[in-house]
From TrEMBL:
Superkingdom: Bacteria
CDD domains, per database record: YdcF-like
Name this polypeptide is given: DUF218 domain-containing protein
Signal peptide: none
Organism encoding this protein: Caldicellulosiruptor hydrothermalis (strain DSM 18901 / VKM B-2411 / 108)
GO biological process, one term: peptidoglycan metabolic process
Domain DUF218: residue ranges: 39-171
Recorded GO CC terms: plasma membrane
Amino acid sequence: MRKFLKISLCTLASVILIFAVTEASIIIFGISAKPKKSDCIIVLGCAVYGDFPSPFFRERLNRAFELYKKGYARYIIVCGAKGPGENISEAEAGKRYLVESGVLPEFVLKEDKSFSTYENLLHAKRIMNKKGFKSAIIVSNMFHLERAHLIAKKLKINSSFSGVYVKQYLHEEYYGFVRESVAVWYEILKTLTSF
């Protein structure tokens, strides 16, 4: 019985340690991420409410617009297919928002086939290849960036990152950081088992 208890406590301590280290890594990566001048900006998909970007998606689009205005990249690729409860694709909602903000329509490219972060970046990479783009700034919430980095590395996308943190939605942000520790390990294990 004592041996079982000891093994259980050691296992629990290991899980807590792994979680803490992963969480710290996610936070540090998100905070320290800095964009570099690139050929394009990739905005990772997020929920759309009817026809309009959700608050998280809107902040990602605002960051992309800010980087575009500062001359970090000429083109913006907006990602995301049409999900449940959405009248239009995330990419279409994002393009409309950016065009209304002042980006010329020809500089906003839609990637509207994807339903996950991996698919966002896979299809965005295909657009990059078609257009001859060699580098990208990937924009998402801070908690999402480390996993996006792992996927971009796997797909051989030459990328830098820029993250947003939406203070008005602290509960959702905290949940995002906690959830991502599991998602990051899922991505790592998926990469390891693919070899």
